[in-house]
Amino acid sequence: MGKVLIYGTTVASYRAATNFARSGHKVIFLNRGAFLVNKPTQMQQQHPRDIVNGYVKNMLVAVANMTGNIEIYHNSELLGLDGGPGNFKVKFRHKYPTVNVFKCIGCDLCVEKCNAEFKPIPGSIGIYTIPDPEGCVDVCPAKAIQIPKEEEREEKVDVVILSPEYDSQEIDEKYGGNLKNVIHFAKFASLFSGKGVDKRFLKREDGKAPKSIGFFNPAGFEGYLGSYEEHVIIFREAVLMKEMDPNLDVHIFLKEVRLYGHNQLFLFDKAKEKGINVHLIDDIEVKEDGDGVSVNGIHLDLFAVLPGQKIPDDWKDIAHKAGIELENGFAKTRPFTFETTKDGIFAIGEFVKPLGSAESIYHGTAIVPQAEKYLKPPELPQMPEMKFKQEDFNPKVGVFICECAAKGFDIDVDADYVIKKDYLCLHPEEIVKEIKEKGINRVVFGACSPSLRGAMLEMTANKAGVHSSYIENVQLREYASRVGADSKKANAMLRAAIAKARKDVFVEVPTVNTIKNVAIIGGDLAALIAADYLVEKVPLVYIITPEFDEPILATGVKENTLNMSDEELKEWYNTLKDRVLKRAKWIKGEVESIEGSLGNFRISAAGTEIRSGVIIIATGGDVVGDGTHIVSRMNGENLHSALSALYAKRKGIEATYDLMKSYSLLDLYPPNAKKGEGEPLAYVKPRDINKKIATLLGMELDKEGFFFFAEEPLHRVERAGIQFMLFEEPFGGVFVAGLAHRPMSIEEEMEEAGFAAQSAMYLMRDITSPAGKYVSVTNPRKCAGCGICVDACVTGARYVDEEDHIAKVRPAQCVGCGACANVCPSGAAIIKAYSPTGVFEMLKEVVK
Amino acid sequence: MNENEILKKFIKDAFDKGLIEAVMAPSATKDSYTYALITKKEDVDKLTPIAPVMQWNGADMIRRITRLKKSERKLLAILRPCESRTYKELVKFNQINPENIIVLSYDCPGTVHARNFKYEPTSAEDLLAEMKKGNISKKVRESCQVCEYPTPIKGVGDIGFGIVNTDEPVFFSLSDNGKEFLASIGIQEGERDDSQWVKIHRENREKWLKEERITGGRKGLEDFLSSCLNCHNCKDMCPICFCKECFFEDHSVFDYESNKYYNWADDKDGIRLPTDKSLFHIGRLIHMGTSCVGCGLCQQACPMDIPLYRLFGIVGNDLQKVFDYKPGINDDIPPVMDFREDELHEFEGLFGGEE
Amino acid sequence: MSEEKFDPVIVGFFCNWCTSAAADLAGTARLHYPASIKPIRVMCSSTVDPVYLIRALQEGADATILGGCHPGDCHYITGNYKARRRVAIVKTVLKSLGFDDTRVLLEWISGSEGPKFARVMNEYTDYIKQRGPSDFKYLDSLGGEEVE
Ligand code: SF4
Ligand code: SF4
Ligand code: SF4
Ligand code: SF4
Ligand code: SF4
Description:
The structure holds three protein chains of three kinds. Chain B is of the alpha/beta class. Chain B folds into two domains: 208 residues, no CATH class; 130 residues, no CATH class. Chain B is built from 15 helices and six strands. In chain B, helix 2 packs parallel to helix 3. The mean pLDDT of chain B is 93. Chain C has a four-stranded parallel beta sheet with strand order 2-1-3-4, sandwiched between helices. The site of one iron/sulfur cluster has 14 residues of chain B, from helix 14 and helix 15.
């Protein structure tokens, strides 16, 4: 088990901490804010309403609770760093907050007795701050109150990961930064925070409802640093505004449209279709104009500017203390890695370059295999094997009421046992004792939300031998006592749960034995990089390709982002290839057929039968044209390329741009073409083989022929959306990396290959259905094999078996969403934990 | 030769040419017509390809034959337009494997209610004669009078048999397979104009949709179903209700302890027994309304003569409008199997879409 | 039943990942809303069989709410789109037969929208109060107002 120190609070660092802990390493997480969400991430600074903010944090907390592998320090500051890989000594200062959120149960006593200040936070108990903690320590039943002393600490760790936060630029005066009714986009987005996107909340500072709004991002203007994400954010928001109120006059001003393809241009088209005015401008002039502003002569009541990234002042200091070099203000990393100029110190996230949050997630995942070369072998937490008895035909319902949650209620329900305790979560032993002594085999908790202490209560009942299928959770606190409900509602909710508990049936959560080999299809650079990560860790890695692509084919904006000569690149590539091919099995030929699913693929290629648990698609792409820059691709009459589009524009042709994401550093050193010299450049063309593989695997290609992978369904835009929040199973064991996915730079290939490899690693085990007790099953007696459920299943977990014409479930892929059960007309597809029998019982009680 | 004889000759020729190995078509019984499956040319004369009664939906019969495995022999199925639409719809639902099947459909004069037929037999020829005069016979079922597609449609089935508006019936192809089939059998494709026949049905339908709608919510529905026996016959005969076991017959869900009945009776000031009658019909609408093909068999099946097609057809029509879906007439995916990202905003929020 | 006294019962099926989380947030933030709302936590808005909505109304609910994630934000990627189709079917059937289809409400409420959750609950309860008790619960019974 290795030990990793992560410094900084970014989407990448959250994800990295989560991933190291899941992989079986210890993590010291130095949060630079007073509490977890106190220091805003890039996402929060750019788009505070995005749900990703909550998800990354919740996932970190959940994994911290689950594995016990993450230690978090708040208000921390890096002081110094000594030693090298395997034995870094890191000195830091930190300060305890007045309340330890991991212990706090949200009982509110400190609010009542010590005037604690309270701030609700989505997905958590909220943050309590105690003005005088000394006098309040004894008030807290959970012993969560602590004296906020400052402390210096030294930790010995194997690897250090630096991921200090992004800083947003101020709005420049040129863009109206000093004017009234010109606001930062984040502030604009916050108008609807928590309240929902609703006309009523669109108000300026002076309380007036704007009739016209403009959005602007200064990409392409002097001094701008940013990625494509700002543009995605702006377009989505503009479309949302127009959908909210079609009468609103909405404008977007941009010098460059950084929508890189994969349907991001769909946003552009959609904006136009909805009647949004998109102005492609060469220059901008923002002036005060009556009761609003005028932007290039257009009157707007409100003008929201999403500026780019600023390099924070403290990065120099951090680099100095860590002894690493910066370049252009960003952490300098060695080619193809996140490793800085000092061994064992890595940099990820916005510390490396301007990037979107989807890439942050890639960073936070791809870092694991890179750092592991310095880490001792992981120790995976042993999940206790739980054995459950099935003699529960005679329900004996025990209702446990937490007085903290049921405050003020007169609980009157009919069950075998009704047991009341002051704070259920503080007395797990007593719950276990009661269950065992009384022979309770159905448990109803009247307590708080499963996302707060409810999950822990469920585990307590598990410990007493009650299977999760027999446990119901009633959120008396969040759904009743804290929202002004009466005893009637509380009792109705409890009775419903009791009725359902009586009908609950045992659900065995299936585990699927998987084949622990990985098959990589294609000879892209990404194939070699992914294989390189995997060869040491999995028994066998297959690479199926007739040949390998030379790196130049896979190179992005080579001369700008790689500090390497062509010879060095070639040498690096040859070493990589040799190293990989020594261990991996190269199947020289094309894929002929693919059968099976996650955990159990059967691939035939070049006359060989291959069995693997996971497939990585890295078929690469072809570069058309002879430039050294792979910028993008063209599509019909539109020039979908940043640079060619610039040309087009100069010639007076209206154009949209479709550029690769690694555009980011081009802000610092624009390539010749952008400066107006040279000719339009090469673009990447997807390969024909993609079609065949997509058909074999039932995957989708975009209109140009690249694979969709991890694109969110709404407009198929890649974004750090939900798809990254789920664990790996729902990808169905198929990952896409490199030019098969989209045009990208060599570093992005490294990131995606790392993401794919690490995700594959997580699947190299026998897979218990991620759905848990919500796993879907089919009742073969009822199933007509109509396949409606198959179409409804988002993860491809369902299929109609050709042999008996009955729908079957692949439990490793089922995530328990229940869509299949909903659509199945005859009730053949069911989620046993949520069967109509139980639900009908609940409904009866709940409406009484 | 009348139409039935022409078709029989057509079938025999097809047998002779080795184009088919089996036929499914109606055959007369004492009081009605059944579907029959034959495999020999000698048996062709036992068939009445165009029958005056539709006791079952033919597509439902093909479903039985091919649900598990594709048809092992080359089968020619003679289906009415509503049946061939059902056929197409059932293919989408994985209930019919269309491989090895040729569907022939014809300009439909309508069918007589099976019970009426039993007591007052009519011949197909009578109905056909009426059709050729351009009239919809008063004897045919309500659903036939308001049928939206009473003639074969391109892409639905393989071969069309045109009867209206032509001196001699014509064959024409509806699909590539059909084209090939007709060519192999040596039949010249013909034409006829069916627009008038379609038009009068559509006019009836428009009127019907307006006038026969069940309104008034609870009272309207209760009254409409007041004589319903809850026998579920309508569902059994409905080809779209292809479930092996209907959800509304699941005893683990719909069996209650006595107290539940008493509680209901307490709360609702008395309940009607058996319970869940309206839930069954509303539930059925939710399950299959989007795919109701308008065969009207539910109505024919009802022992209590409840004009059920007014329920399923009209609500189904509303549902299909919402999704811009017409069951069985093209390759669109049934609404229950599909979704779009940007649609149906009028169903979001209280006042539809905009907040 | 006079209008003031009418205390509706509204069954809410709330997605575990968004609307339930918003309800949690409303709870931790102590935002009050009427006790009429009876929440049922489901894994995803697409878990809710339309028959459940009908059943809730038939069992005695005056209205039902289905709460899911905003389009594009579904934890199960496309669950909310499927749920929207089901709701469209239920509402169309109800409306088509002359029932009050506003008694089925579909709302997108994300996990951070605690205040929106409370607002929607308040507004919808007010709305249902104005509408009065639902007649649907008396379907197939001898009770209710209009009995011959
Ligand atoms: S929807 Fe139901 S009946 Fe149809 S295939 Fe799936 S489980 Fe079987
Ligand atoms: S649709 Fe059904 S089978 Fe598919 S993931 Fe959801 S619950 Fe599982
Ligand atoms: S509901 Fe009636 S008319 Fe519609 S398909 Fe079924 S049986 Fe035919
Ligand atoms: S009503 Fe629904 S469950 Fe019953 S047979 Fe028809 S489709 Fe199947
Ligand atoms: S066939 Fe008629 S009586 Fe039987 S359930 Fe249907 S409507 Fe009721």
